[in-house]
Design goal:
Strand content of chain A: 15-25%
Number of helices of chain A: 8
Largest sheet of chain A: 7 strands, antiparallel
Order of helices and strands of chain B: EHEEEEEHEEHEHEEEEHHE
CATH superfamily of chain A: PPM-type phosphatase domain
Structural class of chain A: alpha+beta
Radius of gyration of chain A: 19 Å
Largest sheet of chain B: 8 strands, mixed
Strand content of chain B: 15-25%
CATH topology of chain B: Rossmann fold
Number of helices of chain B: 6
Number of domains of chain A: 1
Shape of chain A: globular
Largest interface: A-B, 41 and 30 residues
Oligomer: heterodimer
Distance between the termini of chain A: 23 Å
CATH class of chain A: Alpha Beta
Order of helices and strands of chain A: EEEEHHHEHEEEEHEEHHHEE
Number of domains of chain B: 1
Helix content of chain A: 25-40%
Number of strands of chain B: 14
Helix content of chain B: 10-25%
Distance between the termini of chain B: 28 Å
CATH architecture of chain B: 3-Layer(aba) Sandwich
CATH superfamily of chain B: von Willebrand factor, type A domain
């Protein structure tokens, strides 16, 4: 399959680029491959070191498992690594009293990880990739994102219902959780999410999938997020959502952090096709700048909550004859990072480490 | 919609603490035999609130100045800024200055869960910005006048800000007149985002006083002092009610920012400066 992916981002209004706390990986790619993995994460504003934790998660995604239990174990290893790194920093005694106490609370980030498979059988044979044999479309045992389910709705608005249930009776009747398990011989995708970063799948000018949230009102600003502090894994397990579906040539996938995803769903609920607006914006000569201007405009019009914004677009098509090489394209530059992926002003002490599974 | 302004470094909000430092604050708190003076408890509470505010604004790169903070102490014959150490004499300072300038950092202990069903004592750093003071009369009217003056100026200078929050802690017996009108006037000060919010914390010696947090009626108040402070306090904003509800308090649209003989919860937790994970405690 041919995959073209590209990331676009903008910090919160009034913030510097170095204060941007979302993360994404990769930043851009154009390649022929049988397997493509990408992720975005959104570090929580209220915690410190969240941007480093968000980066840790997206970089580790390359090797993360797609079964929930294995994912919990992967996160556990990242948490342990983080704890060791923080202990070292603390022992150096350079943290201000408030930085130390704030860091004790831990860092938090929302995550949505995405995997495209070209061939179900071939991928299923690869160790450690995913729960390829699981026919469940979306884990019905998972709790919805905190506060996400409208209390007065009988509809499966959180998307946690299995198989053929759609998003419910919301105006966004186009927004659906994955509708059915892909036949074994079809190209397919998998996703895993914790929190309010979202995946959308567009096919033939229609919204085919919204995951894990399917209604704009589900974005309430207080989701359960992946923590650096090792809570008993059961909490994280309960809030981890997985889904999968099939893809067809010319499908487009979007991964979005919460502010943009909420706007996207509001547009859908109003009967609009926001992907058309996005594609128009991204089709210009300088798509990053066009995207930034677009986001600034939405903020000015109060259509977009002032927050860091990240969009990762993934376009998938049939494979190119004879092409096999991986050709990464640097679509945009993230804020300057040191070799650990952590961004910190020069006068600050070292930050906790990034995960040992980083690519 | 009121109380919806984004709190940011370019549009900060304000906290003003008013602390009763009269001689009666030397009396022990409550009627349960404790010997700790009320003034000590108040100083601890304020220092802890300041610590929470600083931590709220802390990021890995430092402190973000989301808030301006002032502390007025009233006792004896006058009202003065209560900061000690490098901030002595200053009435309103940005939170980064607070973070950088505790008068001292004490080592204290707290009990933490040992993960095995018990508790262990853990040493913690406890920064001090104000000391326990108890002296002379209770010039509450002067304090309210000074608060009006400071916030009249602050709201004029920050017309788009989330409105200032005033936290007033007292044992309730004003010695320079009835502060009712001055409290009411304080609550009329406003930015474009809403009126000043006044929380009153009453430390009462009245044997009939029970612990009350955020009542929505005056029925259980022990005396006229509590009544005055209850009536003088603001009604909680919708967002504060939401957070108070999540914290387990019964709230209604008449719930007041009034606390009797208890810690003041909520005011820090209900500050919205960005995504707060539900699993951040």
């Amino acid at each position: 399959m041919q995959v073209v992916a590209k990331a676009y981002w903008l910090p919160k209004k009034g913030h510097e680029e170095t204060e941007y706390e979302d993360a994404f990986a990769p930043d851009g790619a154009q390649l022929e491959t049988d397997l493509f993995r990408c992720a975005i994460a959104d570090g929580a504003t209220e915690a410190s070191f969240s941007k480093q934790w968000a980066r840790t998660l997206v970089r580790a995604w390359e090797n993360c498992s797609l079964t929930k239990e294995q994912f919990i174990a992967d996160v556990g290893r990242l948490q342990e690594n983080w704890r060791r790194g923080f202990t070292e920093v603390r022992q150096r005694g350079k943290l201000a009293w408030y930085a130390e106490q704030k860091a004790e609370f831990g860092a938090f980030a929302a995550l949505v990880g995405f995997v495209l498979h070209h061939d179900r059988q071939a991928d299923a044979a690869e160790p450690g990739d995913s729960a390829a044999g699981d026919n469940a479309v979306q884990d019905a045992s998972a709790d919805p994102v905190d506060g996400a389910a409208p209390a007065d709705s009988e509809a499966p608005a959180d998307g946690a219902e299995p198989a053929d249930s759609a998003a419910g009776d919301a105006p966004a009747d186009q927004a659906k959780v994955p509708a059915e398990a892909p036949p074994p011989d079809l190209p397919w995708w998998e996703a895993l999410a914790v929190g309010d970063c979202n995946l959308f799948q567009i096919r033939g000018g229609k919204l085919l999938t919204a995951f894990p949230l399917t209604e704009s009102r589900q974005f309430n600003g207080g989701p359960f997020l992946v923590p650096t502090r090792g809570t008993a894994g059961s909490d994280l397990l309960r809030h981890t959502r997985v889904a999968h579906g099939d893809w067809q040539p010319n499908d487009t996938f979007y991964l979005m952090t919460d502010a943009l995803a909420a706007w996207f769903l509001r547009c859908c609920e109003a009967g609009q096709q926001p992907w058309d607006a996005l594609e128009q914006v991204l089709g210009t000569a300088d798509p990053q700048e066009s995207f930034a201007a677009f986001v600034r405009g939405l903020r000015e019009e109060k259509l977009l909550h002032n927050d860091d914004v990240t969009l990762l677009t993934i376009h998938v098509d049939q494979e190119l004859v004879g092409a096999a090489a991986t050709m990464p394209l640097i679509a945009c530059e993230e804020p300057a990072a040191d070799d650990t992926g952590a961004v910190a002003p020069a006068d600050q002490p070292d930050t906790p480490p990034v995960g040992e599974q980083e690519s | 919609m009121p109380y919806a302004a984004e709190i940011s470094r370019s549009n900060p909000s304000c906290f003003l603490f008013l602390i009763d430092q009269s001689a009666s604050m030397e009396d022990p708190f409550g009627t349960d035999g404790t010997t700790k003076p009320k003034a000590d408890g108040v100083a601890d509470a304020i220092n802890r609130l300041l610590q929470d505010l600083v931590i709220k604004c802390a990021k890995s790169e430092g402190i973000r100045d989301y808030y301006h903070i002032g502390i007025l102490g009233y006792g004896g014959d006058d009202v003065t800024p209560a900061f000690v150490g490098d901030l002595t004499g200053q009435d309103i300072v940005p939170v980064s200055k607070i973070a950088e300038s505790p008068a001292r950092v004490e080592e204290r202990t707290k009990k933490v869960d040992d993960g095995a069903g018990g508790f262990v004592e853990q040493s913690i750093k406890f920064p001090i910005w104000i000391d326990s003071v108890a002296n002379g009369g209770t010039p509450m009217c002067q304090a309210m006048e000074q608060a009006n003056k400071i916030l009249d100026k602050w709201t004029a200078e920050h017309p788009k800000a989330f409105p200032p929050v005033v936290i007033h802690i007292t044992d309730g017996e004003s010695t320079d007149g009835d502060p009712k009108e001055l409290m009411e006037h304080l609550k009329t000060l406003k930015t474009k985002d809403g009126n000043v919010l006044l929380f009153n914390v009453h430390l009462s010696d009245n044997p009939n006083a029970t612990q009350l947090t955020f009542p929505d009626n005056p029925n259980d108040l022990p005396d006229q002092y509590s009544q005055l402070l209850y009536e003088g306090s603001s009604v909680l904003t919708p967002f504060q009610r939401k957070v108070a509800g999540e914290m387990g308090f019964n709230v209604s649209e008449k719930t007041h920012g009034f606390v009797l003989n208890a810690d003041l919860p909520l005011v820090i937790q209900a500050l919205e400066i960005g995504t707060r994970p539900s699993n951040l405690r």
